[in-house]
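During the first year of the project, the team set up a workflow for recording each protein of interest as an amino acid sequence followed immediately by a discrete structure-token representation. This format lets reviewers and collaborators read both layers of information side by side without switching files. As required by the reporting guidelines, we include two representative entries from the current panel. The first entry is reproduced here exactly as it appears in our internal archive.
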Amino acid sequence: MFRMKRRFIILFLSIIFFGFNSNKSFAQKSIEVKGIVLDEFDNPIPFAAISILKKNRGTSSTEDGQFSLRITSNELDDMLSFTSLGFNPFKIKIKDYLAQVEKKIVLKETVFEMDEITIVAPKTYVLNALKKLKDNTLSKPHQIELLYRRAATEGGKSKFFVENYIKIRDRGPASPLGIVEVTESRKSADYRIWKRKQWTHDINWMITANPLRPTDRAPNLKKYKWEITGETSYEGEEVLIFEGTGKNKWEKVKLYIGVDSYGIFRIERNRAILVYKKHENGKLYLSYYANEWGLGRKQIPQKYWNTDAEKVSYKLEAFVYKVETDKKKIAVKAFNPQNSTEYNVKAPLFCDDSGDGIVAFKCC
């Protein structure tokens, strides 16, 4: 069973955990479904996918196993599905879950023996997964809606927190980023010494952190050296864990690839994590993203040296809570950071090379 070695916790005591829905009137009339996902030993299961079956709505558990989503009274008879790498899927009717005294879901570890199959060379296996990427993921135009969070710390202290509800017109990891719209934004008081502004939205870092996306920073995974470092499972399919190393030894990528489907269920690159789950049509789409990084002294204005600002770091999380594949219901307006007080734009928008005229931010 796979265990996270790294803890990703956003500490900000004054922030309330908001439900995953950007419609305020909906939130006021809705029912909150929340709880924790655990294994059989009461350990939290991070990044588990929680979905309302046949509705392509849901969320993911946090690193501490907590989850929250909102439903309407008409959905009480719907089924909730819980899936995670290394565990058997679990389903329960929403009203039955709400009737439980303890709001927790316990997933059982998948116990299996690898079938006697011939495993080709690791690199060949990865190349086959890349070749089938477009077939295995939602690659036709669709809309994803997500809750995005960013926390900034200086000197190890939380100083600024931003929360956005975002819509993206996307075509999956095999294509460039599509239109991005920020539908709602909340932020805390800003206690930073260095009130740094960015020329674009942090959502771009989610794209550039994904080694499968065609960007200027995408690594050439075909030239990496690959080895199998472990095995797990996902919804009954055996999954192999491949670790690749680039020209520089610090360039490392982990891919969790299905033995039968060649689907890529999880990606780890440096400190970035991207988790994919299945759509009702069997295609994979992004469910959860997390990343963190810090800036070196040379990247910080000299006037802030020898202050807490000299040790600045950022932590990001994104929870995808809805996917829309009906073209008639896809409606995304391009976000203009020039109208935001949180970003200092120094570059224009541009049209990507996807051929469909989608406008996106330039990934940097």
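The second entry, processed by the same pipeline in the following quarter, appears below.
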Amino acid sequence: MVHRFPRSPVHAGSRISPVAQQEMDRMDIYHKLFLVARKDQLHRARLVSNLGPPRILDLGTGTGIWAIEMAE
């Protein structure tokens, strides 16, 4: 059995992975699942603010909802 996956054209400067609305919705639901499992804690790291506002690195592995919620 051969599985065929839909292909999207790749243009110069475009993302390698497809960014379909359905995929973005799935990633947002996945984020909410982990948020519920972690009892609404976005992180476990201790944020030290004695050097000014905390600095956080978002590796860009989602839709950006985590970074937005952390900024709030």
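For the second entry, the following points were noted during internal review. The chain has a mean pLDDT of 77. The helical segments are 21-37, 65-71. Both points are flagged for discussion at the upcoming steering committee meeting.
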